[in-house]
Amino acid sequence: MVIKESMRYYTPVPFISRLVDKDVNLDGIFIPKGLSIILFLYGIHMNPKYYPNPEKFDPSRFERDAESHHFLAFGTGPRQCIGQRFAMWEMKYLLCQILRKFNILEVPGHVPKLSLCVLLKFQNDVMIRQYGLNKKLIGFVSPPGLPILKHFWLFASEFAILQNLINLSRKYGERIKLELFYGVPILLTSDRDIASHILNTVLLKDAFYELAETWVGQGLITCKPDKWKKSRKMLNPAFNIQILEGYLKSFENSSNALIKRLKVEVGNDGFDVLPYMNLCTLDIICETIMGIKLNVQGNKNMQYTTDIHEMSAIVIRRLFSPFKRHPWLYRLTKDYKSETKIIGRIRGLTQRVIDDRKRIKANMEINNTNGELANNTIEKSKRKSLLDILLEAEIDGRPLTNTELIDETQSFLFAGHDTSAMCISLCLYCLSKHQYVQANVVKELELIFDEDARSPTI
Fold first, then answer.
1. What is the pLDDT of residue 370?
2. Extended strands (E) in 112-258
3. d(C-alpha 397, C-alpha 230), whole Å
């Protein structure tokens, strides 16, 4: 309940966007085919209609079925996060281990700045068509905007976007039509029923995800519906419960390394926990889902996590710059030059992960041929990692190309570590602010473990 409430309070992915590929008619609301819609998950989670007194941090609200039903941090429908169970197990395990060793205290006066995480790209190339569709739209309100820029002022500051849209939703309702850049219409909804309907019926993601393709490629996160269906079916076996249960030893190894690193901060006035969590979750995703050990927690100068955060910032800057959204003009900017270097490093590490796993598999085949046992501890469980599945898979009767391997692997490396690290960090922050909640969690852990130093089980 504590993890879910912290994810409601600080929704890690505040927006999901879709391109409506068929007319939507729901309880008197009509959305014509061809419009882009932002599903404002953070707005749903902070909507008093679904969560009474939403500004209050209250884990007990998830004891009530109605409020649990509205929780959308992992999305819903066919394209719901494939790693949801893995992420929850990972977060529970790490949170359990941290709270058994440390008391988390608040840093007086410190409030984390929330900035935009994911939003859609606005499509100038369908402006005329969308004007026509706009006339058919029913059930959405258009708030007053500025001349020419219309509602662009809402997105002028990355740190103010979320609160601006929350305020707008509370003033004008759950269904809003925004116009940006010379009248391009974008729909924004914090209506849970509409969001659920769209997520369950519309698989086509909005053009924002094209901005991320240079970074994560055309993997499971960004690919079109036809490819997604094949990839999802291919990758589902990597996340069944029996496979996930075999990851507990990897959770233990990485959490022990994390605890050791956190001990150096004991007694300090305060520190940023996110970099610690980023390296820990990256270690976990590599050892479990990818089947190799990188031991990045022992590398204080690990560039990958820094590159991920900088790449996120570049995408957001490009998103809200008419100049940078034009492909040829963007090539003239410093961000483009930085992006090129960063992508080279990111995909270079991804290639290293793939090559290491290929080498391990080749050694296993040689050892098995000779009747020997593999020495690598990851292999002793004889489980098949997601990367193994990718290396052995066929799509349309052919093996995956190296580019397809990199795209899928990079998608999971990024999504599998960065979001979990942010969620755990913000959960710890919430517990530091609400000591009575932390005390209840610690009491529950004491009832389970008492003085026993054993590792958690699922």
1. 56
2. 175-180, 184-189
3. 12
Instruction: Quote the CA–CA distance of 344 and 341 in Å, as a whole number.
Output: 5
Other beta carbons within 10 angstroms of residue 252's beta carbon come to 14
What residues contact residue 257 under an 8 Å CB cut-off, 6+ apart?
280, 283, 297, 298
Of the candidates 120, 83, 187, the one whose C-alpha atom is nearest the C-alpha of residue 413 is 83
pLDDT at 258: 92
**198: confidence class by pLDDT, cuts 50, 70, 90:** very high
Of the candidates 452, 454, 428, 445, the one whose C-alpha atom is nearest the C-alpha of residue 2 is 428
Beta strands across the sheet bearing 175-180? 15-19, 36-40, 184-189, 175-180
Residues 6+ apart with CB under 8 A from 366: none
d(CA 387, CA 353): 9
Per-residue pLDDT for 123 more than 60? Answer: no
- Nearest-Å Rg of the Cα atoms of the chain is 23
Q: Do 175 and 194 touch, CB atoms closer than 8 A?
A: yes
Instruction: Report in angstroms the alpha-carbon separations of 84 from 76, 89, 227.
Output: 11, 9, 21
| pLDDT tens digit sequence for 404-431 | 999 999 888 888 888 899 899 889 999 9
274: which 2 tokens? 């996110």
For the chain, the distance separating the N- and C-terminal CA atoms, rounded to the nearest angstrom, is 16
Q: How far is CA 40 from the centre of its chain?
A: 15
Per residue in 345-365, pLDDT (tens digit) is 989 889 988 998 888 888 876
Instruction: Name the region of 140 (left: φ>0; alpha: ψ -120 to 50; beta: rest).
Output: beta
Query: Quick one: tokens of 120?
Result: 């859609």
Amino acid at 319: L
Read off the tokens for 206: 């909005």
Continuous H helices in 175-219: 192-201, 208-216
- Whether 280 and 254 have beta carbons less than 8 Å apart is answered as yes
Sign of CA dihedral 236, 384, 402, 13: positive
Please report which helix (H) or strand (E) contains residue 409, including its range: helix 402-433
- Of 130, 132, 186, the residue nearest 155 (C-alpha): 186
Is residue 33 left, alpha or beta, with left meaning phi > 0 and alpha meaning psi from -120 to 50? beta
Average pLDDT over residues 12-21: 88
pTM of the predicted model as reported, rounded to 2 decimal places: 0.84
